[in-house]
Amino acid sequence: MKLERLLSIIILLLNRRMIQAKELAEQFEVSTRTIYRDIDAINAAGIPIVTYQGTNGGIGLSEGYRLDRNILTNDELASIVSALRSISTSYGKEKHQRLVDKINSVVLPAHTEDFQQKTNRILIDYSPWDGMDRLRSKLQLLDEAIDSCVLVSFTYSNAEGEISERIVEPHMLILKGRQWYIKAYCLEKKDFRLFKLKRMKELDLDQDKHFIRRESPTHELFESRSNLNDAKVPEIVLRFKEEARHLAEEWFGMEELLPDEDDGWLVKKAFPEDEWLYSFILSLGHHVEVLEPKHLRGIIANRAEQIVKKYKNDKVT
C-alpha cells in the first residue's frame, strides 16, 4: 500500500546516503514512475529529497538535512508496528513485514527487549474465519491497479442481486466492518462508487488504459448511506430471553441492556434497514423478538414463515 511504501522509503533514506530509483522500484515491485511520484509526495510533506545525476547518482535527502531519529518515540514506533501486524492479518503481510524490519532496525539495542514487549501487547485480527486466499488475490490486483493508475473491469452483483459489467478508475481500498471495499470512479455512472470485493468477479486490469486521479471524497460515501438509512429507520427494540443474555452482551455490550418486566432484556438501537439487518435478526433465532417497529416485526415473521415452508415436510430422524 502507498503509505507503507512511503514510510519505508523515508526509513531507508535515514540509514543510507543515497539509493537508486530502480532499486526502490524492484524492492517494492512497482514502476520507477511510481517511485518518482512517491518522492514528489514525500517532498510535498516537507522532507526535502533530491535526485543526484550521474553514474553514481540516485535519490537522497538534501545535503545538510537529516531527520531526527527521535522524531518518533519508541512508544509511537511500537504503535506503528502493532498496526502493521494487525493490517497484515488480512492484507500484504510480506510488504508490511519489510517495514516492520526497518523500524526494528532504528531502535537502539538497549531498548530492543522493551520495544518487542510493547509491540506484542495487542493484535487486531481482521482476517475472516473462512480464509483469505481468494480475497487476497483481489486485493493485490486492485492495489497494483491503484499504483499504476490503470482501468479495472469486472462483473458485479449488487445487494439486490442485479448483475452488471463495470469499468472503473480505482482510487482507494477500504476495510470497514470486516469487509473490503474499493472506492472507484465508475465510467458508466460517471461518479464515485463503493464496490464490495466479495461481490466482484472476473477482475481484469487494462495495462494500456491509464487515468489521471480525480479529487474524491474520503468517507462521505459511507456517511451519506448511513445518514440516509438512519433518517428512514426508527429505533429498533429487541427483546432477549434471560438465557440469551450472553448473545445480547456479545453483540451490543453490557451497558446497552435494559431489564424487561418479563425477566428478559431489551436492547434499543438504530440500525440501517437492509438485508444485513434482516439476516442478523434471523441468525439469532428464537432467542430474540422484534418489538418495534411493527413493520420490521412483520418482515421477520414473513421470512421465518418462508424458512419453515422449506423444511416442514422433512422427516426428523
From TrEMBL:
Pfam family, one: WYL
Top-level taxon of origin: Bacteria
Keyword Transcription regulation belongs to the record: yes
Keywords: Transcription, Transcription regulation
Entries under SUPFAM superfamilies matching the protein: Winged helix' DNA-binding domain
Domain HTH deoR-type: 2-57
Keyword Metal-binding in record: no
Name assigned to this protein: YafY family protein
Source species of the chain: Aquibacillus rhizosphaerae
